[in-house]
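We store sequence with structure; for instance:
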Amino acid sequence: MKIEHPEKFSIDELDNLFLWKYLDLFKLIDLLTTKDLYFTRFDNFEDGLEGLTGKAIGLMAFTQGRRLTKENINKELPNEQQEQAIRNDRQYRLDLQEQINLQKSQYACCWFLDDRESLAMWKIYSKQEGIALKFKAKQLTETIIASAQSYTNSDFHILYYGKVDYKNIWPFDPHENFDGKFNGLKKDRSYMSENEFRFVTVVPKIKAGVHHHFKLPIGSLKDFDLQIISTPFMDDWQFDCLKDMLKHYGLDDKLIRSKMKIKK
């Protein structure tokens, strides 16, 4: 698999930073048993603008509202202009659908990048029984790169990574600049609190929609210098049960309580 990242980003920027993954217990168990990171296909994200190109977002803005037809078009326009407007509207919608279909060719594994935990992330992505995995950012990134380079399924031919760039995506801003290559590394400014870092894998257009998700092996969590942090909303008996479960994987010494002070 070919590895890429934006030119303005250097992996050395990750020194002394941490990548956090906020999980419920079921997703933690899946990671512990499979030793694979899960990548979600962009069309399955809550944000319907995930992975879209600047062209697609512009087309989405231009095609808002009813489809143009002979019945609803402005009759004050000359017939030739009416017919041309209807043809243009039809083509814009076809082009937009083709662009949206490209969401099915990209898969992302998303992380929170910071040196401290986030209450917002706890509330959004983890339940009362949830945990956060706190990895040294550079170590995890180097592990993922090495795994991707040795990955043999030819459908997944590119992995790119980097910090998410928060832009004025919607409502559409015609003055905003979009990198046409790393479309999976941008989100609307309304998501800025997530402070995301992403790994994105890509399949060719002809394979779009073939795979529901992607999994990348990273090995045992015991091999990482990491912490497993319990949600600040977790009860004492739940913490003890979690510690007992992690003993089976040799990870009970990695478990610590959240340092946040929360009224339960």
